[in-house]
Every structure is written in C-alpha cells, then in structure tokens.
Amino acid sequence: MAERKRKNRTEVTEPAEPAAENSRAEILPAADAAAGADPSRMLISISVRTLVEFLLRSGDLDNRIPASPDDAMQAGSRMHRRLQKAAGADYRAEVPLQCIYEFPGEEPLRLSAAVEGRADGIFNGNLPDVPGSETAAVIDEIKTTYRNLEKMTAPEPVHLAQARCYAYIWCMTHDLPFVYIRMTYCNLDTEDIHYFYEKVTRQTLTEWFDDLMAEYRKWAEFTVEWMKIRTESIRRTEFPYPYRKGQKELAQNVYRTIVHQKKLFLEAPTGTGKTLAVLFPAVKAMGEGKAEKIFYLTARTVTSAVADESIELMRGTGLRMKNVILTARDKICAIEEPDCNPDSCPRARGHYDRINNALYDLLTHSDNFNREAIQACAEQYQVCPFELALDISLFSDTVICDYNYVFDPHVYLRRFFAEGVSRRNYIFLVDEAHNLVDRGRDMYSAELHKEGFLALDHAVGSRYPTLSEKLKKCNAQFLALKHQAMTGTAQWSPEDMAPLSDSLAVLYAEISRLLEEERRRSRRRKRKLSGERREIQEKILDFYFDLSHYLMIEELLDDHYKIYSESDDTGFKVRLFCMDPGRNLKNCMDRGIATILFSATLLPIQYYKKLLGGTEEDYEVYAAPVFDPERQAVFIADDVTSRYTRRGDDEYDAIAKGIAGVISGRHGNYLVFFPSYAFLGSVADRFEAGYRDPEKIECIRQTDKMNEEARKQFLSRFSESSDEHSLLGFCVLGGIFSEGIDLKRDSLIGVIVVGTGIPQVCSEREMLKDYFSGSGVNGYDYAYRYPGMNKVLQAAGRVIRTRDDVGIVALFDERFLTPGYTRLFPREWKNCSQGSVSVMGHLADRFWSEWL
Q1: How far apart are CA 437 and CA 534, in angstroms?
Q2: 103 Cβ contact partners less than 8 Å away, ≥ 6 residues apart
Q3: Any residues with CB less than 8 A from the CB of 193 and at least 6 apart, and which?
Q4: What pLDDT score does 108 carry?
Q5: Domain 446-522+530-578: which topology?
Q6: Phi (first) and psi of residue 803, to 5 degrees
Q7: Residue 415 has pLDDT above 90, yes or no
Q8: DSSP string, 814-850
Q9: CATH number of 629-849
C-alpha cells in the first residue's frame, strides 16, 4: 500500500455549484475540474453516488419495494431540509465537494478522475452519544426511509461508502488527521431518528479510497480510450449518401440549434430523410465536444429500428459509436410474466453479483447493444436483460428509447435525470413529436378509483389490520367526495382534496413500511410464498405503484391542472388532469442543452410549440417535400360527413359508393380510415353487400383486439400488389395502422379518410376547450380540430413514402372545405379536386390515366 500511495496524487477543490449526483463518467478537460491541473492529463468525472452504487452493489434484484430505502419521492427531500435546518447555525448543509484523483502508473495514458458530490451536512463539534469523542469535523449523511429503525443494527454498506468518500475528500481538503461520520436515518412515517457513528483516520480513508479507485480503474481506462476512438471516428464520418433535396439544409438547422442550445420544431414531410438529417449533425456535434450523449426518443418500436439503421449507415463510413435500444421489460424479459424478485425469477437471485462482469464483457465486445445482443449476454451471465440494458446505457453514446425514459416522472432514467442533477450536455431528438402532446398529458396525469381501495381491503382482510384500517379511512374520504359530487363530473380545488391527500400519504407510508418488512422477511425464509400470500403481495405492490404515481403528480399541481371526480356505472374516480403538459416537458428538456422535435405532421406549429414546452426564442423550420406533388392526387367528397347528426343507412351507403369510385380507377392496395369501429363496421358491411366484386376485391378489417401477430399478418397482406385484384383494408383513424407503417411504391396506392378525426366530446375535452379559450387561443381548435387533423394528416401520409410513389388521398367530409381545415392543409395539397361521391370514380380515372 505504501508504494502505491507514493504514486497517487489527490487534489481537492470545493466547486462553486453543487455537483451532479447521478451523472455517468465523462471526459472533461483537466482545467475544467481543478485550477492548476496538468492539462496533459486525461480526466474523467464521476459522482460519488454513481461510483459507490456501481462498484459496491451486490445481492438480489427485487422489485417488491422502491429502488432504494431513501427513494421516498418529495417527502424524503422535505425531511432532509427539515433535519438540516434544525441542526443549528454551525451546520453546513449540501456542501459541494470534489477531488482530482490521479491513478498510479507511468504509462503514456496519464489518467485522473474528478470525484464529486454533495455532503448532506458538515459541522464541527463533539458527539454526546459517543463516549470519549473529541471535538472534530463530522460528516453527516442523511437517509430517509419507511423501514423500522429499531431493527437496524448497522448502516447500509453503500450509504456508508458514500459518506466515507465525502469524509476522505474533507480530510484531504483540510489536512485533518481524522473525522467522524454520522449516518442519520429518519423514518418518514414516525419521524424517529437513528444514528450510527464512525471515527475514521485519514490513513484509513486513504487506503480505503485507493482500493475503491483501483476497482474503478478499468472502467475509467475504458471510458477514456473509447472517447478517443469515438471522437476520432466522428471526424472521419461522412453523410452516408448524397444529400436529398433540402436534406443538407435540415442538417445545418439541426447543428445550428445544438450550437445555440435551443429547441427546434421541425416539420419534415415523408421522404426528406429526417432521421439521418437530425442524427448526423448531432453526432458531429458530439465529436466536437458540444455534446456528451444523444437520446433518440420515439413513440413506436418501428421508429427505434429506423434510428438504429441510420447509425449503422454511418458506421459504414467509419463511425465508431456505442448505441443501445431500450426495450420494454415485458418484451425483453426471459420469463413469460416479468416479476423481478428472487422468489419468481432465478436470474434475480444474485443478479448484482454478476451484472458488472456481464456489463464489461458486452461493453468491450460490441458497439451496437440491440435487443438480440443484450439478450444473448444476459443469458450467458444469467442476469436480467432489462437491467443490463439500463446499465449499458451509462456507457452508450446514443440511447434509443421511448419518450417515457426522459419525460415520465415515474419511470424516467434516474441515473441521468434524477432530481437536482444540473443541466448536462445531452441532446434530445424527439421523433414523431406530435405524439408527445397526448403522451405528455397521460404521463403528467393520474387517477385513483374508489373501488380499488375496497378491493385491496377485501384482499388483505385481517392479515394486515393496520393497512386495512388506513384503506378504510381513504375509502371514507372518497365516499364523502362522491356524496358531495352526487352524479356525473365535479371539479375540485386542492383545498377540497386536502383530507383525502393526507389520508393517502399515511396509507403510502404504511404500504412502504409493509413492503420493506416483507422483503426483509423473504430474505430470511428458505421457501417461496404460498400462492394466496403471493397473490396478496402482488395486489399490494400494484396498488402501491398507482398510489405512488398519484402522489408524485399531486406535487406538480398548478394552474395547468384540473382536479375532477367522475361517477358512472363502473365506479367513482378522482383524476388529476394535466391540460397543458408544456411546462413539465420543458423542465425535462432543460436537463439537456438542445432538443430537436420533428415530425411529418407538426402543423400548426404554434400549437405544438405551446404544448411541447417551446419558447419564443426556439426555432421553427418547415421542410419542403422532396417528391413531385403531381404524383399525389387529393380528392374531397363534399356531400358526405361523419357528423353524428347525419349518421345512418343513407350516409353509410353514400360513403361506400364513394369508396367504390375511388378504387375503380386502378386495381391495387388501399386503406380506408374511419372515426370508430362502429362506423367502420357499418360502412364496410354496406360496401361488401352492395359494391364489392368478390372476384376482384378482397376486404380485411382492423379489430379492437389485434395482438402483435395479428397486426403483422394484416400488414403482410400489403406486401404484394396486383393489377387484376384490389385489397381494401378498413382501419380506425388514429390507430396502429394510421401512422408508423411504411408501405412503399405499389404496396399502397390510395388512402381514404372518412371524417375529420375530431375526438369524441367528453368532460376532459370540454375542460381543455374552456382552459385554452381562457388563455387567449381558440379552445375548440386546441381541444378538437388540431388533434383530429393531425390524425388525418398521419393517415394520408401513408401513401407517398418515396419519390417514386404515386397515389390518391381522398377526404370524405364536407367540413374539409371550410377555412378552419383548409388552412391546415400541407403545401402540396393546394391543388386538390372536389366533388360528390358520384364523381370520385371519374376523378380517379382521370388521375391514373396520366400515370399508367
């Protein structure tokens, strides 16, 4: 140890700003980390918490309690502040610390690590609870939990290791012979406090920290070497094929946005090559040190694959980049029903004892961490593939994942976006950004059902009397609201909800305590839970997650929310409804330096800019289509509609007649979209009975219960086309076949959209209309017209996918001719034709005669 100590050098600084506690290791110029540091040294940065949790984790993977004992949402943060405030004037809270640790060795790679973090508290004094203690510096580490503190005999090893890192830095900073460590555990339910103390010398801390950093060294060396390889490869990387018309300008706009650290709202019609146009400049910016990591965010699996394919194209020009696709747990899990605990999954037992070996193997033998690569590695090391993917994301340059991993307050990637983490050099590329409006509303809304409390109370019975008591109290609060609301929908203020909120918080604490006790009990027992006991535990856990999400959203309530209750035949619910997700989405995007939000349909741009967190300073770009607009005919049938007041046999028959006319001009594959399954069925029945030639036309229908295999079979029917035969697919507007599918050339030659796609009138839509009307914009447009028209544009966008495609878009509703809709038409629709359903056949014949 003495020999190694002579070769190590530790410099210490106290940053002006708190250090990020959950950041991954990153390359930093030495001068950025500490004044006077050797500029020739390779320096990486890692937080104390990431360091100790990554290196010291062990044991089982267990989903039956929250991720860590101090992961108690905002309640834990509030308790931290209370304890710090009550500690006295000499107590320094949230002390930022940093040391520059130089790894030993004389090899050409001179490697150092900036280890940084925030100590919960530091003070000078003696410890009255410790006999014989001297007056000295005390490093205080606070952890909040719901566990029974009386049963704790020692601090959690990872928590103690975190405090020892702070103690080491403080000793080195102030040249102290020793310090005290105080581990402060506080129960969030009872507010009981339990202390653990440790007196530790500078020599002991130095030897301990040397050992910790020696274990981290291989990861640090890999990170530094990889960054050099990646950066050099990016300099050589070229755009993989000649730029399409307007594509280079798109890439330049994206690059400019990243440099200026803004948001860009980009509408790029199909065929512009927008995926590469946003990825390539982001990669180039990374190579120039302007970005640390790229997050490519999608709403659908198919767009994840497109992003992956685009990175592979750049690899063909020399790019070295590590990218991961995060696949949902239930799709990548090795067992049929994911249940991540050692009683249910053999891989969960001892998962953390094996995971770092699996991670290092995968990291050093592959660059593309796709689903197959992750599953193969997880199988070899018998670890959870989902958790392996999350861990490998720490070392990935590009993370391809669902919106949820960045924006959802309940499931976002805490290793990157934990509360309190400062802005990082992340780039967010948001594909199909029009989907983020409704997804954002869903993510930032929450609801609880009265019947859920009764069902859980019935399930637990007398087994958990304290839990049963608290469930009954919450149910009573629900009942009081129900009686006040009488029937239908009622709106409430936060003050109205206070009694229920208090009861829910107490219930949450009780379930947290119970789950913690059950997990610890499961560690001691030799056998699995009985079927009945396990079923009860699963019900409690499911309920806990719903309750946790509700309480988390409750903390976000502001003037962008409505609280309402609703009573119907299914029961009584209370909902926290986020009407405008813009502020919450912006807060998430502000964790990075730049965001590119792009879609083929992002009109009107101000609507999306407002609801997706844009500001006046952010940029807007509309890319011109690359294909010849003459290759697409747009027809509007002006004598039919999907209005409820007109629905009936005559209208269904007229629409069926119009469909027959559109497809009469040429045999081939067509899709027809309807506002609902009921409407679809009525028109499809009419068409098949009166207008279908069984020998020439085949009809297939989308159903509301199609699984993944059924969807594939449906789409596979469009893989072939015939000049002698027509395939007609009846689908629902806004459904799985109206966007995200890519049927090129003769796979699809026509789309018919019946109706304007406006959402059904309901209490929430009316709340949205009133809310936006009150904010100075057209409430009907924001609640109904714009969301509906986006569905229409998405469905119409299935026709022209390449510059070689030719096809028809037919809009069946007289409302499309009104100014409220024509102003939303894309530029290439300006020369559309209109007429009754009886002339659709003539229009189709005339169009195809020019192209066939």
Answers
A1: 38
A2: 8, 111, 112, 113, 213, 217, 220
A3: 83, 149, 184, 185, 186, 187
A4: 54
A5: Fumarase C; Chain B, domain 1 (1.10.275)
A6: -70, -15
A7: no
A8: GGGGSHHHHTTS-GGGTT-EEE-GGGHHHHHHHHHHT
A9: 3.40.50.300
In this prediction the pTM is: 0.88
Beta strand 293-298 with 398-402 is: parallel
Q: Is the pLDDT of residue 751 over 70?
A: yes
Torsion of CA 324, 330, 336, 337, to 10 degrees: 140
- For residue 604, say if its preceding peptide bond is cis, omega within 30 degrees of 0: yes
Degrees to nearest 5, angle at CA 78 with 442 and 552 = 10
193-223 pLDDT, tens digit each: 999 999 999 999 999 999 999 999 999 999 9
Give the pLDDT confidence score for residue 82 in this predicted structure.
81
* Amino acid making up residue 812: F
Task: Give the pair of three-digit tokens for residue 824.
Answer: 């939303």
774 pLDDT band, cuts 50/70/90, is very high
- Smallest CA-to-CA distance from 793 within 683, 646, 663, 632 is with 632
Instruction: Output the DSSP codes for 241-266.
Output: SPPPTTHHHHHHHHHHHHHHT-EEEE
List C-alpha distances in Å: 773 to 388, 769, 776, 779.
47, 6, 6, 4
Strand order in the sheet with 750-754: 697-701, 726-732, 669-674, 750-754, 807-812, 632-637, 833-835
Residue 19 pLDDT class (50, 70, 90 cuts): very low
Which tokens go with 401? Answer: 């994942």
- pLDDT reported for residue 586: 96
Q: What would the pLDDT profile of 154-207 be if each residue is shown by its tens digit? A: 999 999 999 999 999 999 999 999 999 999 999 887 888 999 999 999 999 999
Report the alpha-carbon distance of residue 307 to residue 313 in Å, rounded.
10
818 C-beta neighbours (distance < 10 Å), count: 11
Domain ranges of the chain: 2-222, 244-438, 446-522+530-578, 629-849
Q: Given pLDDT bands bounded at 50, 70 and 90, which one contains residue 524?
A: low
Tokens of 416: 């990157």
What are 66-121's pLDDT values in tens digits?
A: 544 344 455 667 777 788 887 888 899 889 999 999 988 755 557 888 898 999 99
CA 168/CA 330 separation, integer angstroms = 42
Q: How many CB atoms lie within 10 A of CB 320?
A: 17
Which amino acid, one-letter code, is at 607?
A: Y
Do 244-438 and 629-849 agree at the fold level? yes
| 244-438 CATH choice from 3.30.70.2120, 3.10.50.40, 3.40.50.720, 3.40.50.300 | 3.40.50.300
CB contact set of 728 (below 8 Å; sequence gap of 6+)? 659, 663, 670, 671, 672, 687, 697, 698, 699, 700
Single-letter code of the amino acid located at 179: V
Give the pLDDT band (50/70/90) at residue 40. low
